[in-house]
Write a structure and sequence with these properties.
- The structure is a single chain.
- This protein has 200 residues and is mainly alpha-helical.
- The protein is built from six helices and two strands, in the order H-H-H-H-E-H-E-H.
- It has helices at 8-21, 24-58, 65-97, 103-135, 153-158, 170-198; strands spanning 141-144, 166-169.
- It has a two-stranded parallel sheet.
- Helix 5 links the parallel strand 1 and strand 2 (166-169).
- Helix 1 (8-21) crosses helix 3 (65-97) and helix 4 runs antiparallel to helix 6 (170-198).
- The longest helix is centred in the first third of the chain and has 35 residues, at 24-58.
Amino acid sequence: MSIQIKTSDDSTMESKSYFESNGKWPKWTKFLDYFSRVWLVAILSYLVAFLWLLVEFAQGKNSIVPAFHFLIGICLLIPWFGISRELFHIFSAIAENGTPFTRDVVKSLYRTSFFLLALPIVQIVVQMLIGVLMHGHIPLFNISLGYGGMPDLNDLFYSEVDQPAITIGIASFLVSGVVAILAKAFSYGCELQDEADHTV
């Protein structure tokens, strides 16, 4: 009669083979990779359009407002690209290591939290700048328990009345905090994983 002792390396290999053999996991990883690249293509396209319109403005052929449209689009697309790219890194790290409790996952979660925090801040700053440039003053602020957001850019640039109030959504900032707490929990899980790996 023989007794087999399963080591932590054996458990890791089993988990890794599970993630590799699970058909949905590689598909989601590949999808997030392509999805993040779509955001990058959109950012580059907006950048080309912004530079083109900037040249036309310098030549006196166009107003500066259309160029601002694309500049604002770039500022809003960058956080979404960062979020989608970090999600891809998280899925890739889990599939590669066979466990979510790795330093790479923790770092990606913290970066995702940063991008989630940057998104509502960028929206607020953009609306403040438009208010100053187009209306000569910073718009009023409206605090909401839900998510924030931006009104239509045409309303911001071409409205004959005052610019709509800037909505500060509390939930927009809470999401970032929740992801940061999740990253801290995963960091603690990494410490437990390291202890288990070094236990004989």
